[in-house]
């Protein structure tokens, strides 16, 4: 479980942080071109942005190799995770996912009456696909897979995941959250989006919040079978939650190949540095494929967080496998140095 959520200590200390490493935000974005585009777009704010939404949908459809009716945009992928949960669980049922994993969709599902069937990750922190397949029954309305997984930063091998999706999606839709896909070595080999094009009942979620550095601008999308998207747009209007600024920003950002590659490279540099420093200190760090990493700590979680925040360093703490863990997001290299210095002091 996540330890800090809704803790006033966290809220009060955010403005004072020297290193904000708690929400897997991109410290370098949005790109300069996105910033100037958005500044210009503010004056268009008197108009609804349906045509910009249509433009972005077309661009994404082409990039993902599907037709436009396979794409739905949302103000952040959270919106689409939540809407999918609401549509699927209006009449109850169960949701199968890994544990620990990213809880947004699962929590919304539970809140409206779904039963959660958590399947522990394997020893190498990948999804236990056999265990998950066995947990699917006639009452399962959705399987949630986060790959790479949050909070562990670990991956499940693409070939195995594809076979799982192909066989299990015949029984129940599979939601694959790929928020951190672009930080992987070979994103194109690891995405499940090709399964959607092949007609499988898979829903892939992506976001502009991570590699694009647009977390506060709120934009993301899902790629799914048209009838899955219609089941949502039947209840809610798809483009009414979107702002002209984020849409125009996203239209530019999808074309920012150089900026995106630079973010990925700088993230990896920080990741390798922090991994080697922590490993040298004796910590058992889970190899990361994302913009964050996690490792067990020798200190009670809340106490640890309090001390780190007091040092002006925001990180997150979790409890699972009967021990406390620190999850640290990759910031700039100087923020990572501040993190390591504070971490050494706090755990000395
Ligand atoms: N999915 C995962 C795995 C995440 O880690 C996050 C944010 O941290 C989200 C989805 C939600 O991102 P957003 O709503 O900003 O697109």
UniProtKB/TrEMBL annotation:
Q: Name one Pfam family in it.
A: Aminotran_1_2
The molecular function GO annotations come to: transaminase activity
Q: Which residues form a coiled coil?
A: none
Keywords (alphabetical) are: Aminotransferase, Pyridoxal phosphate, Signal, Transferase
Domain of life, source organism: Bacteria
PROSITE patterns for this protein: TAT
- Per UniProt, residues of the Aminotransferase class I/classII large domain are 21-343
Give the InterPro entries listed for this entry: Aminotransferase_I/II_large (IPR004839), HistidinolP_aminotransfase (IPR050106), PyrdxlP-dep_Trfase (IPR015424), PyrdxlP-dep_Trfase_major (IPR015421), PyrdxlP-dep_Trfase_small (IPR015422), TAT_signal (IPR006311)
Give the similarity note: Belongs to the class-II pyridoxal-phosphate-dependent aminotransferase family. Histidinol-phosphate aminotransferase subfamily.
Protein's name in the database: Histidinol-phosphate aminotransferase
Q: Which gene encodes it?
A: hisC
